[in-house]
Predict the structure.
Amino acid sequence: MGGVLLGIRSRRGAYVALAILTLIWGSNWLVMKTALEQAHPVVLNLQRTWLAVALLFGVILWRRRLRVPRAWWPVVVTGFFQTTLNFGATTMALAEGGAGRTSVLVFTMPFWTLLIARFVLHERVRGGMWTAVALAFAGVLLVVEPWRWEGQLASKLWAVASGFGWAAGTVASKHFQRKHDLDMLEFMAWQMLVGVLPLTLLPLAFDYPATQWSAGYVALVTWTAAVSTATGFLLWIAILRYLPAGTASLNIFAVPVIALLLSMTVLGERLTASEWWGIAAIAAGIATLTVVTLRATRRGDAAVPPPTPLEGG
């Protein structure tokens, strides 16, 4: 369905779609950061998530196959980590932190995935993977600088929490796929719906500032909800019909690079020396993980569970 719906019918088309998707997800960090100038992070997150939910269920209804989940536990668990924690923490991080710095910290997701999958899925972590995890952990410490309690510490911790939520949602979805026959489009739509419900209660308990509506803000919210989240998910499904999951997953590591370059160019974001060293360590960890994954792929063994088909932010 996804490939035909989006006009992807070949391996070459899938590579083109993957390049487009990487650009979409990379630029989405700048879009969300800009939108936060006119809305509270909780409110923005609700607006973009509810719109994405409506669009995904619209596609399901168009396919005439809307079904209520037979098992709600997978939906609730995945929804909490993937949508409540991941989406919620990302917007909180962006509210006070730079888009580029936030994206780098969120994209420590693969390393959290390795650790969580070790205990939940009982997937073996090889020697090279431990090296990648150690480099990433050192990089996170250098970027977050927990020994400095001033500045953007809270924002950085929110970003790390988002990456952890994304990883936990990834492992949860893979775990439940082993136990249940899941239609991923329906499953992800339902988990997003369930995951956004706790966040929807927050405006009832707290008095958030009113959104400054404008044509520009509507365009920004529409982009992050309709293009980055809903269409991005459909593109991911279509891409995985023609490309190996490992190949597609490794390409998304270009997303934080794009986000960082755009943030520095457009928003004038500047990093400290410690943050640059931290990003270099994370990049080294990603490079190590890439080599290990490619070697495992040649042996026919997926080294890293592919990310959940959402933009992780």
Remarks:
- The mean pLDDT is 82.
- The longest helix spans residues 153-179.
